[in-house]
Amino acid sequence: MLKGNLIKIAIIDDDEDDFFIIADYIKSIQGANLNVEWLPDYSTAIDQIKARKYNIYFIDYRLGNETGLALLRDAISLGCEEPIVLLTGKGNRSIDIMAMQSGATDYLVKSELSTEKLERCIRYSLERATVLKELKTRENKYRNLFEGAKDAVVIADKSLHILEANNAASVLFGYTTDNLIHRNLFDFIKGSEQKNRIVSKLQEEVVITDIGIDILSGNSKETKPCLLSITAQKNPDDKWIFHCIIHDITNLKKAELANLQAQKLSANEKLMRIIAHEIRNPLNNISLSVEHLEMMDETVGMQKELMNIIRRNCSRINKSITELLDLTRTGGELEFHKHSLQDIMNESIASVSDRIDLQNVKVKKIYQENPLEISADKSKLKIAFSNILINAIEAMNGNKDKGQLAVSLEGSPELLTVSIKDNGIGIAEENIPKLFEPFFTLKKNGVGLGLATTFSILQCHNASIQVESKVNKGTNFIISFARN
To answer: Model pTM?
Structure first.
């Protein structure tokens, strides 16, 4: 360890004679490349420590009006990583203990010094400093990984009481890192079934990989789907600690749902085009046959009335087919221009004003004062908003004269957000994923195309839609548009 590179040694002592004695011992070390220099006082030593000029320091306990312990503590506070050895004229156990507690690498009595003892001290101190630097480097590396991880990382005891948590955990759980300490991880996991599954797995093995859980975030109790991984480690004191990584997959779930809805819509659109084509061909034949029958005999009253019935229903079917085909062609017909989102929403509300008045629904508009500009096909976006508004109004049918509709528009640097919230009958949780599927409806006389059309229009505007609902509490449609 002492061979090879030059090792610079500083002896900090206000007694020059003591310096020469110690320096002679050090210079007698065989095969070592050592350079010994004298720092006679406290202030000189501090300057050199700041400059990090030396590899190791020997500090005398007595330094004029100062003490070696004071210099030691100041050096440590300045971030000195080089080893420091405290020297004293006489052995003193209490000084020895204070020196080691203050950060000294070693403690030597001047009267007991020898070349061998100093060689051993220098070698040990430099080796220990090297090990400590490596440990500190590793600790900083893993600390940075821990603090900078995008996933929530929690260190917990065997009962899953939190001992340490990173910033991502604070964001996920909705508490400061200090407030998370000593709380139990199970406090944030929804449902006893999920908790029991984790306990059962930990009893069987010490590793859990990507188990699905729902996290309750903060006082809002918002539920976030996550994946939990746990590894266990036994400390030297035979205590188990658990490293828990929680990956929030909320956005992934939303993307999967949107992709699934898009796939279903695409499949249904193809089916609709096929059905429309297959129905329209025989329908045209029926219409032509009716025209021929009318030309053959228009005097028979009953026959004429039946022909009118056939004609009207043929027209009705043909109109329905046209609407189906319009739904499949929504994307290709859009014309985008700059519009105020407030204006589009106001016109959408105006288009359903008769229904609002008949139901005596109270409408509350919460708009951001500044215009929220969006690139949109105004007529199509009005259809999308109107369909949602109509659904909200109809959901409040049983709440006559007490219906409340809240429409809010907000803007951030990244998103424009529309919220249409009612206090109607709500939607069962299992039905929410089906809302935008063509032909799915919860209405007695509904066709199930309104929200499917809405979803198709919003997709063409690169918008996402989220539905929050509780039975008998109401529903909130949240639409997010990316800023152009």
So the answer is: 0.46
**Integer Cα distance of 348 and 27 in angstroms:** 92
Provide the pLDDT for residue 446. 59
pLDDT band at 209 (very low <50, low <70, confident <90, very high): confident
Query: How far is 215 from 300, CA to CA, in rounded Å?
Result: 74
Nearest to 169 by CA among 183, 159, 241, 209: 183
Residues 6+ apart with CB under 8 A from 455: 261, 265, 436, 465
**Residue-level length of the chain:** 484
In a 13 Å sphere around the CA of 217, the CA atoms on its Cβ side amount to 15
In contact, 83 and 56? CB cutoff 8 Å:
yes
Cα distances (Å, whole numbers) of residue 283 to 268, 275, 291, 322, 329: 22, 12, 13, 13, 22
Contact 227/189 with Cβ under 8 angstroms? no
Contact between residue 448 and residue 439 where contact means Cβ atoms under 8 Å apart: yes
**Residue 150: Cβ within 10 Å count:** 11
Closest CA to 194 of 137, 246, 269, 143: 246
pLDDT tens-digit series, residues 91-105 = 677 877 888 888 888
What's 110's DSSP letter?
G
Lowest mean pLDDT among 16-25, 28-37, 55-64, 194-203: 194-203
Q: Which residues are registered as beta bridge partners of 63?
A: 66
Cα gap 420→388, rounded to integer Å = 8
- In Å, how far from its chain's centre is CA 338? 32
β-pairing verdict for 106-109 and 84-88:
parallel
pLDDT at position 189: 87
**What would the two tokens of residue 401 be?**
């004269």
Spatial distance between the Cα atoms of 185 and 166, rounded to a whole number of angstroms: 14
106, 121 contact by CB (below 8 A): yes
Conformational region of residue 251, where left means phi above 0, alpha means psi within -120 to 50, and beta covers everything else: alpha
Cα–Cα distance, 139 to 145 (Å, whole number):
10
d(CA 251, CA 419) in angstroms, rounded, equals 19
Domains (range + CATH), the chain: 7-145 (3.40.50.2300), 149-248 (3.30.450.20), 253-329 (1.10.287), 337-482 (3.30.565.10)
115-154 pLDDT, tens per residue? 999 989 988 888 888 888 888 878 777 777 777 888 889 8
